[in-house]
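2024-03-11 09:14:02 INFO queue: dequeued item TetR family transcriptional regulator, len=379
2024-03-11 09:14:02 INFO validating residues
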Amino acid sequence: MDDDEAREAEEARREAELLRRDREKAERAEAKEAERLRRDLEKADQAARKDVERRERDRQKAEQDAAKERDRRRKEQEKAAQQAVREAARQLREAEKAQRAAALAQQQAAREAEKARRHAVRVAGSEGVPVDLPPGIAVLWRTPPAGRPGPRPSLTLEQIADAGIALADAEGLESVSMARLAESLGFTTMSLYRYVSSKDEVLSLMSDRATGRPPVVGAEVGGWRDRLELVLAVQQPILRAHPWLARTSTVLHAVGPGRLAWMEAMLSALDGTPLAEHQKVGAIGLLASHGLDQLRIGEELSGAGRTAAVGTTAEGAPAPDLGELISMLASADEHPALLRAAGQGAFSSPEDAPQDDDGLDFGTVLILDGIERLIAQAS
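2024-03-11 09:14:37 INFO prediction written
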């Protein structure tokens, strides 16, 4: 029993020793782990402090950079403001310089315009015409130079115009060519170009000369309507004698002495009325347009005009006029008003239309009545 107890005691001792060793080992491991944790905590604390320090340095650097950026922007703004002030001052100087230049240019233009005006308003014996006038107008204001040495010209512009008028009256405006004109005058075509440079110049001369000059209408003639009717009564027979004028008397064509004289006569006839100047110009423009329209219609309704427009009949005769065509084509059911007007000759040529005691056509009288009413309203 003693041996057994001794063995048990030895085993217990050994087991206790093992337990002690295990406990010591566990304690050492625990101490080691605690030391590792302590070192890790110290490292983490050091890393945290370093991170805080780094962030602080970054914050300080960011503040410094922001301060530098603000300072840079402030300097740029100050520089831009200074540049803007300098640019504004420069622009002001340029504007003042441009204004002075514009004023000088305007003064120069005014002087040039006055010079051109004086040059354009020439008296007999002056040489040349303003260079800025179109040839078709400049030729109308050309006057022969006085006292120039050498032989006299063989032709005058008046002779050229008269020859062109004779051709147009006899054979129509289409017959007027430089070759035909030279032939009728007994000259060669090339020699004619010494006096006029183109057919357009010839047409301008013809238009201005064919219309002649208006009558003198003063207060002794009567009121505005009497004066205007007198001018129109003289003008309309001239237009009817030269129907080709409808194709040469455009607004800007042939603005010569004759054209201006007629415009002056018609416009001055309205002196003393309460009409504004633009109303006066509009009124005489309407009268002039109506007169030329009547002239054009008359030319188109003539036998030659109808042939040029639609040809001839199968027998070679001129085409029917408008009234005859309406009578042939209109039906009593659909066009009773047209047939009635055609039957009474309402579509005849303006030359055959009824006229008043002064020889004025219905349209002219109607326009004059309208002007009279306008004057009454303005009074």
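2024-03-11 09:14:37 INFO annotate: Residues 134-140+155-210 form a domain with the Arc Repressor Mutant, subunit A fold (CATH 1.10.10.60).
2024-03-11 09:14:38 INFO item closed
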